[in-house]
Amino acid sequence: MDKLSVLHRFIDTIEQYQLLKKGGHVLAGISGGADSVCLLDLLRMIAPKYKLQVSGIHINHGIRGNADQDEMFVRNLTQQWDIRLVVVKVDTPTFARKHRMSLETAARHLRYLHYQRTAKKLACDRVALGHTADDNLETVIHNLVRGAGLRGLCGIPVHRDIFIRPLIKITRKEIRSYLEAKSLKWVEDETNTDVRYTRNLIRLQIIPIMEKINPAVRENVLRTGELLRSEDCFLETLAQKALSRIGKFNSKRVLIDIKRFNSYNLVLKRRIIKLIAPEISSDHVERIVDLITRKCPGSHYIQAGVVVRIRDEGAEITRKVSKSVNGD
Amino acid sequence: MDKLSVLHRFIDTIEQYQLLKKGGHVLAGISGGADSVCLLDLLRMIAPKYKLQVSGIHINHGIRGNADQDEMFVRNLTQQWDIRLVVVKVDTPTFARKHRMSLETAARHLRYLHYQRTAKKLACDRVALGHTADDNLETVIHNLVRGAGLRGLCGIPVHRDIFIRPLIKITRKEIRSYLEAKSLKWVEDETNTDVRYTRNLIRLQIIPIMEKINPAVRENVLRTGELLRSEDCFLETLAQKALSRIGKFNSKRVLIDIKRFNSYNLVLKRRIIKLIAPEISSDHVERIVDLITRKCPGSHYIQAGVVVRIRDEGAEITRKVSKSVNGD
């Protein structure tokens, strides 16, 4: 592995998925960790070639003991590289308590919220994030262990909406070597949360054994993920088409034509229900499918405020839509 | 965990998937290992309830140093339990050399071949195999690491054709406790092959960490596998329907209507090609899809004797079908 190989693979990934538009404006999420420093350095390397404008955003989550030092590190780095930086300070613990989320979920939510807002403010057409091939593998293993379905096994998408992840084919080890070869510094993430504990088990104890079995495990899981994602998207499109044919929408309610619902395969039935009520678990999806298929009369309370009423005119699904979480 | 819980879950699995017919005749594959001894014991426990006839088959692979002792162990056990046993001796190493297979692949091939033949001879309507929840998890992890697609992540099917796996929801640990509680003996598998080495890494070093992260990892992977399998089957059915519409078959050749091929989603295109030439890798599937989609004129040699010819009347795919392997 050498510096050039990382740069080349970075460019290859950008080309393969057409992640960047020439003359565009990219907002890079910079925590100050190795991945994000590498991302920012690679972006400024290719900026002339793509006529890119590169800006940075740093979210100070107010969680880590050294959050302010991290912020200072990112401020210095971007100043040194002459890159415009937006720093957003958020109070993650308070937000998490208020919305009954775990710290990780809250931090993630706030991060993406401010990425999007800032991208809009600065008129950025892309937000670049530093996820690596290791992050992808860890995510897939974690989802496998938790019992996530097809979607979870796809891993981290290379692009979604304005978000792009051009480091997804590069390993964490390669990134460290790259930074060391260029004498670039970074900060270590010192948060010690449950998720981090789990991630460390996966990273330090599971992945090394998988590498022993097959050194190409990261590439393999990435490639499989791409195939799975295309199959998942295809099924999702079929389910959406089916739903638009058999469902009548009315604010919080959907009325489903039972006879036409029953003309679909179980796979699409499940996905139709999941489209209507994404908040429910797969066990409850199964229950709703069963209720509609067998046309069980009456009102059935399911979970999380979802109610199914089987009536003559069809199956009515009502959701108690929770107020959308707001980061202000 | 107690003896009853294993028996109950065994019966639950049989009921849930309707694995057995009342009054049927089951052939149980008995290596002499813990799983197969447990399987045979459970089958004879439930035989009166289901009015089952239970027979056993033992394959002496001629590989393991103590193959003959294992055979003797199984002969004694079945005699003691008054169960009819068929012993088949095969020369796996010679078969493997002759057909250029690994020892594991050859052993597996011969095993299933003789299971089917013997089932036919004895008029058995089911062949019961001792795969456990651990075997399933190990298989899924192994397939993930190797980069298998959707099919590989489904794991081991509970039933396929006449084969049933009623221990699939029971763990290896539970099986050992069951046997110990009933003072039943078994033989340990002492073969030391590459596959076994890999399996041991997965079993001893990866799964314990996964259990630490989520003690329900086996159930989760089983449940996910079932969902994935139904999605895989659904996509397969769509691809088969599409192929029957756009393909003309002619011994070793398939002629594809290019225009109609191109009307399908990439997901179905890939699966159509995989149906025509299951022997090729996913990279080569991708290449064929690309050749047909872009209508690249001429003859293209792909892999393993597969040739694609793009002509005016359509895309012709020719396979060099290898002689089917024969166990005699």
Structural overview:
- Chains A, B: GO terms for molecular function: ATP binding; tRNA(Ile)-lysidine synthase activity.
- Chains A, B: It is an enzyme of class 6 (ligase).
- Chains A, B: Residues 26-203 form the tRNA(Ile)-lysidine/2-thiocytidine synthase N-terminal domain.
- Chains A, B: InterPro entries: Rossmann-like_a/b/a_fold, TilS/TtcA_N, tRNA_Ile_lys_synt, tRNA_Ile_lys_synt_N.
- Chains A, B: Keywords: ATP-binding, Cytoplasm, Ligase, Nucleotide-binding, tRNA processing.
- The structure is a homodimer of 328-residue chains.
- By secondary structure, chain A is α/β, with parallel strands linked by helices.
- Chain A folds into 2 domains: 3-213, Rossmann fold; 238-318, Chorismate Mutase Domain, subunit A (Up-down Bundle).
- Chain A contains 13 helices and 11 strands.
- Chain A has helices spanning 3-16, 34-50, 67-80, 92-98, 103-121, 133-146, 150-154, 172-181, 194-213, 217-246, 258-261, 266-276, 282-293; strands at 25-29, 53-60, 84-89, 126-128, 159-160, 163-164, 247-250, 253-256, 298-303, 306-311, 314-318.
- A 6-stranded mixed beta sheet of chain A has the order 3-2-1-4-6-5, with helices on both faces. A 5-stranded antiparallel beta sheet of chain A has the order 7-8-11-10-9.
- In chain A, a hairpin with a 2-residue loop joins strand 7 and strand 8.
- The longest helix of chain A has 30 residues, at 217-246.
- The two termini of chain A are 44 Å apart.
- At the A-B interface, helix 6, helix 9, helix 10 and helix 12 of A face helix 6, helix 9, helix 10 and helix 12 of B.
